């Protein structure tokens, strides 16, 4: 690997340009986003992502030998490698307590029509979910549970949001994801014979009462308003998670995990 470029000033134009990728408009215009963190970058690499640029800071790295190995791994891909001073890196970083790794990668830009899912697929549909942390948490669940794809219907945030990437621990690159308007998502599922299951408190059917062993897409909505009528009317089934406490809703990522793992339990028991 050739000697890296070294940048020490936080006012360097390249450092400032990294900061602009925190804005969605810039990400969409450049079709690029940021991956920050040793673990997140490693998972992205394992998923086949080739960063365009890698910025690292030796002062912030943990185990030096392991960290140096990741730098060499990225450099061997032909990625431009840039060493930053601590001040410059902390200016570019978007998380507290950075560990010295920040990469520029292509954003995930995929529609339902671009997905290739197997027969009898298990999917997760997230409608209008606002918080990047919730999207990221659902991606981690999808990765752990072996969900075939996660679809954002009428997305409020984008898959390239650095906080979504961070919350997903990089699984946004390992789990097939797509974004589309709700009508397209519902029609796409119907065309493929994938049963749409809507989670809502307004039903008597508990989530454990339904058969999830065929092709199924579990839909969750926002914590404030839930799923829209468009999804509820397009769903073949509606299920609820029983609740006995005072709160009237669960965190959306928690709800998704509960229902997804019920589906996984049933499918393994076949």
Got a strand count?
A: 11
- Principal-axis shape: elongated
Number of helices: 10
Residue runs with pLDDT of under 50 for 5 or more positions? none
Largest sheet: 6 strands, parallel
Order of helices and strands: EHHEHEHEHEEHEHEHEEHEH
Relative strand content: 15-25%
Walkthrough of the structure:
The chain has 270 residues and is α/β, with parallel strands linked by helices. It is 36% helix and 19% strand. Helix 6 links the parallel strand 6 and strand 7. Helix 1 runs parallel beside helix 5 and helix 6 (132-145) runs parallel beside helix 10.
Please give the structural blueprint.
Blueprint: E1 5-7, H1 13-20, H2 24-30, E2 32-36, H3 38-46, E3 53-56, H4 64-75, E4 80-84, H5 86-92, E5 101-106, E6 122-127, H6 132-145, E7 149-153, H7 162-167, E8 177-180, H8 182-191, E9 195-199, E10 216-220, H9 229-234, E11 237-239, H10 252-268
Parallel strand pairs: 1-4, 3-4, 6-7, 6-10, 7-8, 9-10, 9-11
Antiparallel strand pairs: 2-5, 3-5
Please tag this protein with its features.
270 residues, 6-stranded parallel β-sheet
Summarize the structure.
The chain is an alpha/beta fold and 270 residues long. It contains ten helices and eleven strands. It has a six-stranded parallel β-sheet with strand order 8-7-6-10-9-11, sandwiched between helices.
